[in-house]
Amino acid sequence: MQRYFVPMESFTESSVTITGDDFHHIVRVMRMEAGDTVIVVQPGGQAAIAEIKTITDDAVLADVIEWTQEEKELPVRLSIASGLPKGDKLEYIVQKGTELGAFSFFPFQAARSVVKWDEKKAGKKTERLQKIAKEAAEQSHRTVVPVVNEPVTLSGLIERAQEYDYKLIAFEESAKQGETAKLASTLKVIKPGQSILFVFGPEGGITEKELDKLVGAGFTACGLGPRILRTETAPLYALAAVSYHLELLG
What we know:
Blueprint lengths: L2 E3 L9 E4 L1 H10 L7 E5 L5 E9 L4 E9 L8 E7 L5 H11 L4 E5 L10 H21 L7 E2 L5 H7 L5 E5 L1 H5 L4 H9 L5 E6 L7 H9 L3 E3 L11 H15 L2
Parallel strand pairs: 1-3, 6-7, 6-10, 7-8, 9-10, 9-11
Antiparallel strand pairs: 2-5, 3-4, 4-5
């Protein structure tokens, strides 16, 4: 069944109204009709099976048939902080990171970021990235849509980091030196419901000066295996490692 994230105000006790892009997807793309069923998800993560009853010119009206209990989210909240990369790499990180269970994304202006986002561009790009996250969350049957934050400075990122239980930096020099224990040891002690903020540099990596600031703010530098990963690959490696350790190993 197709899955749609619907605002809380669109629900009544026993029905839901779907409008906007989701209405268009149901009617124009999927060509659904009365009697078809979809999964609708509230902002808090509660999901329900709903049967389409009526389709108007701008809305799909459906009856809630059954509320479901789903366990689709990582047991810990993992946020990805990416130094602004070139091209569409950030879109890729958001899309695939959402599929792999990321809780939120923090683009940040790193010293070696080639691209610069002005205020006007940042708003539009963030809106597009949030849409990508929503679509990826629907495709991967998540119960939560990750939040894509507008770009922050390194200082702004450090300020936000105070909200997290664990703070890690993917640092290629650590990988070159064969460091392998920091990520594994963190995953051994973290408890369900706790949070990790994981920082990844842009194409040129994190500078020593940035590393010093982050370490001074309580971050731990770690390697991600013996191979040097691209800026768009490293976050996905980290998410897969967390999923394997906390979901598959039990």
